[in-house]
Amino acid sequence: MTLSIPTPSVSVPEVRRIDLAAGELTLSALLCAAENPRAVVVALHGTGTSAHYFDGRAHPDVSLLTLGARLGYTMLAIDRPGYHGSTPDLTGGQSISRQADTIAVALRNFRANHAVGQGLFLLGHSFGSAVAMTIAADPDGTDVLGLDISGWGSHFADRLKPDTVRLHWGALRLYPPGTFRSGAAMLGPAPPSERAEVFGWTAIFADVAARIPVPVRFTFAEYEAIWRHDAESVRELSAAFRSAPTILVEHQLGAGHNISLGWAARSYHLRSLGFFEECLVRRSAS
User: Fold this and answer.
1) pTM listed for this prediction
2) Hey, CA dihedral for 227, 231, 233, 234, is it positive or negative?
């Protein structure tokens, strides 16, 4: 049976491409701005994709950027260094820590030139989660209010091998028809340095997690096959966030690793934005 989601008749906010100054570097990004934003959601994509991951076009309900803007958030999806228009000369890419530094500089410049409401939320997918976590652990003036993570964890699944790219997607039924045709523009080669760092993440996860001082939410897809998300692994992951005021770990039904491109995208995105709302309420009450 093919799932069909009714689409409300509302105007679609404009998604436009912008450049972000990051010291001597320039990053490309997709911006979907709210007129008087409650906050800014900064989205960081995974390996082999780009900012377009968060603006899926296979179905009107898939785009995180337009949904967030409708709900009063300015949405900023950044092409991480080495991807798309972000420093294309950096063919080798940057390390996790260097990416975090580069993006933090870009975000400080963005704050100086755009309304940001109460501050910034970070939303990371897959490898972008490692960068988002690293920024949150050392915000350095970026005023991070909360962190939302998907497609990432602390321990790889036992059967994971470096060449199991198919595990990123799962069954085709999880995605709207045309996902792979419409998503061709968002796909690209991963910088070599990034591939090398993926399998070293588990050794530094606990140290990075322990330094994050803001609310954190993790989401594992029902059909996540790259990361362990059994009860024991979830308990260990949660315990690593010793400085975070809250840590939530949830499971998204009907989703594969690339949650933001599937039928479950709208549900996941609404939960993420709901989490950010809770962070704002908690901040206002403190």
Assistant:
1) 0.92
2) positive
